[in-house]
Write a structure and sequence with these properties.
Blueprint: H1 6-13, H2 21-24, E1 35-50, E2 55-67, E3 83-87, E4 96-98, E5 101-103, E6 112-116, E7 120-128, E8 130-132, E9 144-153, E10 161-164, H3 169-179, E11 186-198, E12 205-216, H4 219-238, H5 248-268, H6 280-353, H7 374-411, H8 416-447
Parallel strand pairs: 1-10
Antiparallel strand pairs: 1-2, 2-7, 2-8, 3-6, 4-9, 5-8, 6-7, 9-12, 11-12
Membrane topology: Multi-pass membrane protein
Region (Disordered): 314-333
Domain Neurotransmitter-gated ion-channel ligand-binding: 24-217
Length: 452
């Protein structure tokens, strides 16, 4: 009985490590014939997507096969052996590279390849790729990213190596979904494949471009970032219920404003600085920060008006006290006036002594030719002084009343600024709610739109 082994096939093909004829050049009998390399890439896992570095780390399966014109055998002569597995360094392999790759694959390559009886060489390899990917974070965290893997030869032109793909985009997408093991924080959407010819250094080269589309899982960002900032806005809105008296309201608003600032610092560590557009989430934070800042300014203005109202009320109290003191002086003058009337009666009695009525008494008693008694002259001098003081008091009272009337015309009735503060607070609250609702509605409508 014949013993069948793979070594018989290798001996027949003269494939051994000492024979370099199969590994030095392209395996074609005519150099004008291009080697057709069929390539397939399947996505096995999404390991990481770093927005700040704009790098994409996928785990892919790469399957490629080509024709070797120097390898063939008849399976019937070798116990129906149709394929043999040999070390990869024995045969020639195409020098394919990925343009977006930034780090060398750390996973060890597959040490073996498979050859078939008709000369087909099959290589299967898995790789962890660290590639560049231009992140579009305009709609973060509701964004859909597309990262490309461009595969081409390093030195061979299109006349020497033709890159082809057998599986179309839909088949590649379905197979990748079946093979998918982990997706990190992303959801795999689809995978497209295209073929084009590029001319990087003067010679044309075939390039196969695989584009991977993935959607971010946004629930964690909504819970950990968007909702807390929205809650801060609601807290700032509820601060309108706090009294404007004292500094508690300003302290509360400043604390909420600082909390939003901390959230912005956290956001700055997530988003890349090389983005083409300002992300909507940054506009969201800046808009809420601006609303809170305007609310803080409105509170400062209200407290300033309250200080003016307090000062006005204090001045009014002082004026009222001065007016009460003036009225007390007026009562004293009335008492003096009543005593003056009593003295006038006495004076009338004195005037009758000289035969002159009281209403016809001359201003200068010396004109009569007689001098009144000493007691009547002193009482007349005192009564004249009382009348002079009473006239001065009436003038002072008239001046104070005129001053109060002018102040009332300028500042209005008592509580003028208090009423103004209530009107301004009510109007700003309505404006604040309206502006916040419109702003949030606009943000979420743009976020959930299909196109950027």
């Amino acid at each position: 009985e014949r013993v069948c082994s793979y070594q018989e096939v290798l001996n027949y093909l003269n494939l051994n490590r000492g024979n370099d004829l199969f590994s030095l050049t392209r395996p074609v009998k005519d150099f004008r014939k291009a080697t057709k390399v069929h390539l397939e890439v399947l996505l096995y896992a999404i390991l990481d997507v770093r927005e700040i570095d704009q790098t994409f780390v996928p785990y892919v399966w790469i399957v490629m096969h080509w024709q070797n014109d120097f390898i063939s055998w008849d399976p019937s002569k070798f116990c129906n052996i149709t394929k043999v597995t040999i070390p990869t360094d024995i045969l020639w392999k195409p020098d394919l590279t990925i343009d977006e790759m930034t780090e060398r694959d750390k996973a060890p390559p597959s040490p073996y390849l498979t050859i078939t009886n008709n000369g087909t060489v099959l290589v299967q390899n898995d790789q962890v790729l660290v590639s560049t990917c231009m992140m579009q974070v305009f709609k973060f965290p509701f964004d859909v990213q597309s990262c490309t893997l461009s595969i081409k030869s390093v030195v061979h032109s299109v006349e020497e190596i033709n890159l082809l793909y057998s599986l179309n985009s839909s088949v590649t997408t379905n197979w990748s979904r079946e093979l998918m093991r982990t997706q990190y924080e992303w959801l795999f959407v689809k995978m497209t494949v295209t073929n084009k010819t590029v001319k990087p250094f003067g010679s044309q080269q075939d390039t196969i471009i695989y584009t991977i589309y993935m959607k971010r899982r946004s629930i964690l960002y909504i819970v950990n970032f968007l909702l807390p900032v929205l809650f801060f806005l609601c807290l700032d809105l509820s601060s309108f219920l706090i009294s404007d008296r004292g500094g508690e309201k300003i302290s509360f608003k400043v604390t909420v404003l600082l909390a939003v600032t901390v959230m912005q610092l956290i956001l700055n560590d997530i988003l890349p600085s090389s983005s083409d557009k300002i992300p909507l989430i940054a506009v969201y934070c800046i808009g809420i920060f601006a609303l809170m800042f305007l609310s803080l300014l409105e509170t400062i203005l209200m407290m300033h008006l309250m200080d003016i109202e307090s000062e006005s009320q204090e001045n009014e109290r002082n004026k009222r006290h001065s007016l009460e003191d003036g009225c007390a002086d007026s009562e004293d003058r009335n008492a003096n006036y009543r005593s003056c009337e009593k003295e006038e009666k006495n004076w009338s009695g004195c005037s009758c002594i000289f035969g002159v009525s009281a209403d016809k008494m001359p201003n200068d008693l010396g004109q009569v030719g007689v001098r009144p008694p000493l007691g009547c002259s002193s009482r007349l001098t005192e009564q004249l002084q009382v009348f002079v003081n009473f006239s001065d008091g009436l003038k002072e009272l008239t001046r104070m009343l005129s001053l109060l009337a002018n102040n009332a015309k300028e500042e209005g009735k008592p509580g003028f600024w208090t009423r103004k503060i209530n009107i301004i607070n009510r109007a700003y609250f309505i404006l604040y709610v309206t502006a916040s609702s419109l702003f949030l509605g606009l943000m979420f409508s743009i976020w959930t739109s299909a196109d950027e």
